[in-house]
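Tutorial sheet, problem 5. The two components below are modelled jointly, 686 residues in total.
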Amino acid sequence: MEEKEKPAGILKRFSAKYGYLFIILVFAISIGLLYWLSRYNYLLFHSLAEIYSIVIAFAIFAIAWNARRFMDNNYLLFIGIAFLFIGILDTLHTLSYKGMGVFPGYDSNLPTQFWISGRYLQAFSFLAALLFIRRRVLATPVFLIFTLVLGLILTLIFYWKVFPVCYIEGIGLTPFKKISEYIISLMLLTSTGLLIYRKREFGGNVVKLLAAAMLSAVASEMVFTLYTDVYGITNVIGHLLKILSFYLIYKAFIVTGLTQPYNLLFHNLKKSESSLARQAEELRQVNDKLRQEIVERKKTERELEQRTVDLEAINRELEAFSYSVSHDLRAPLRSLDGFSQAILEDYADKLDETGRDYLKRIQNASQSMSRLIDELLKLSRVTRQEMHVEEVNLSEIVRHIAAELTASQPQRQAEFIIAQEILVKGDGQLLQILLRKLLENAWKFTGKNPSTRIEFGCRVYNEEKVYYITDNGVGFDMKYAFRLFQPFQRLHRESDFPGTGIGLATAQRIVHRHGGRIWAEAEVGKGATFYFTIDNW
Amino acid sequence: MKKKVILLVEDNPNDVFLTERALKKTRIESELVVARDGVEALDYLFCRQNFDCRNASCNPQLVLLDLKLPKIDGFEVLKQIRQDARTRLLPVVVLTSSTEEKDILNSYAFGANSYVCKPVDYNQFVDLLRNLGQFWLVLNRSPFSDSGD
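Model answer (C-alpha cells):
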C-alpha cells in the first residue's frame, strides 16, 4: 500500500517549485526593467549592471577571506581573493565608462581596456584556481601577487600607456580585443571542462553553478566581440549575460555558501561527518553483533550448565549402578557356585561323571561372570575416579610389575628391557593400572613363546613423546585393530588366552583421561606394540 | 567352656545357609546367631524387642556384618554399635560383596575392625571363614572374653 504523503512534504515541494518560478520571474522582470532602463538611460543601466556584479565580486571576496581558515577547498579561496581584484577592475571599468567623466582625457578605449583586463584576470583565476583544489593556498602571498598584477595592469594603462588598444571611436573593437575575448572564452571553457572533470571534489550544485556561470561569461564575451557602439544593443545583451554570469557565481558562492554551507565551506566536514556517521553505524552493527554474541554465549553457558547438571545426574546414576552391581550382582553367583559345591560334596554318591561335570561348568561360569563384574567395576572406577596429578616415574612402575610377573611364572624364560627414568605428570594410581594392563597383556600373549622379550620405552615423534610397550608374542591381525579398545571385544579365543575383553578398554580410558591417545601395531606371530601419549599438563 | 557366639548380620537366606554350612566345615566351635536386617541386629545386641530376655552381659565374640541390609544398613548398625558403651569395643568384621573403595574407607571410618570381601568361589569362601574364625575366635583376645588363660 502506498504511504499517504504528509502535508508538510507537499508544501515543501510546492515551495520549491514556487521558489524556482519566483526566481525566474524576478530575473525576467529585472531583465525587462534593465532593458527598459538601457533604452531610457544607458549610462545608468550600465552603472547598475556593473555595480551589481561589483557588489557580488566584493561579497565573494569578503566571504572567502573571512572563512579562509575554515575553507578546506582552496579552489574557492583562490577565486574569492581573485574576485576582489576583478571587482576593482570592474569598478574602474564602470568609472571610466563613456559619459562618467571620472577620467578626463580618456575615451572608450580605457573602460574596454579595464574590461578586458578584468576578464583576463577572471579567466586566469578560474584556471589557476584548479591547481589549488588539493593544495593549500597561502592567502596573504596570493593577495600580494594579485595586488602586483593589478598594479602592473594599471601601470601598463596609465603610466607606460602600452596596453594594447581595444576600442577605437567610430571604428569599434580592435582585433586585439576580439581575439582576447576568444582567448578568454577558450580559457573559461577549458576551466569549465576541468572543473566538471574534478566535480567529486565539490559539493552537489557548486560545480553546476560555476560551470553555468563560466558558460554565460563565455556567451557574454562572444556578444562583446560584436559591438561597435558602446551604447549599442549587443552591449546591453553582453551586460545582461554578465549579470547572469555573476548571478550564478553569486548563487554558487553566497546563496550556496549561506543556505547550504555544508556543500561549500564545510563540504569536507560533511564528508567526515557522514564517514563518522558511517563509522557510528558500523560501530552500532559491531555492537549489535557483540550483543548477539553475548546472548548466544549466555545461551551456550546455560546449555553447558544444563549439560553439567545432566552429566552429574548420569554420573550419580552410574555410581548407584556400579554400587548395586558391586553389592547385588555377586550374591546370586555365590549361590550358584556355593550350592553347586554343596551338591558336589553332599550328594557325591548320587552323581555320575556327567552330573559332576555339569556342576563344574556352573561353577566355572559363575566364576568367570564374577571376574567380568570385577573388571567392569574397575573400568567404571577408572572413569569416575578423581584425578590426582603428580610426577610419576613410569620406569619404576614397569620394573615393579615386571618383577611381579616374573615371580608369578618363574619357570618362564623372560627378559624385560626397561628405559630408565621415564617421568610424566599424571595420576599415579591410574597410570599404574594402565601399565599393568599393557604389561599383563604382553605377558599373557607371550606365554606360549619359548622366550619372552618385553620392552618399555619412549620415542619422540613430531615433538611428541610416545611411550610404548613391545612384546614378541602372538600379535594379532591389524584388520581387527579397531576393535581392540572396545569393551568386551576379544581378538583371541577364551580357550587360547583367557580374558574378559575389558582390560584394553580400561587402558584406553586411562589414556584419554590423561588427554592422550593409545594405539597398537602388530603382526600375527611377530608380536605387538602398544603406543600411548600423555598430555603433560 | 561356653560356645563362642558369632552374630551374622545377613539378609540373603542363601548366603546365610552357605555361611552356616561353611562354618560347619571349618569345625570351629561356635554358635551362629543370624540377624536378617540391621534393626534385628541392633535389637539383639541391645537386648530389645524379641531379645529382651537375652543375657545382656554376654556379647557375641564377633559380628560379621553385611553392608547392604534392609531397614538399617550396615554403616548405621556399625555407627550405633560404636556409640553404645555396651558394644563400643565389640569386634566387627564387615563381610560384603562390595569391593568399592568408598565402602572400605567408610567401614573403617565408622570403626570396623576388619573388612573382608566375599568371594564367589565357595571353596575360597570356606577358607576365608576358617581364617576368620581361627583369628577372631581363637587367636584374637576379645575385650569381653571371660575364658582367657
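Marking note: The two ends of chain A are 66 Å apart (CA to CA). Full credit if you identified this.
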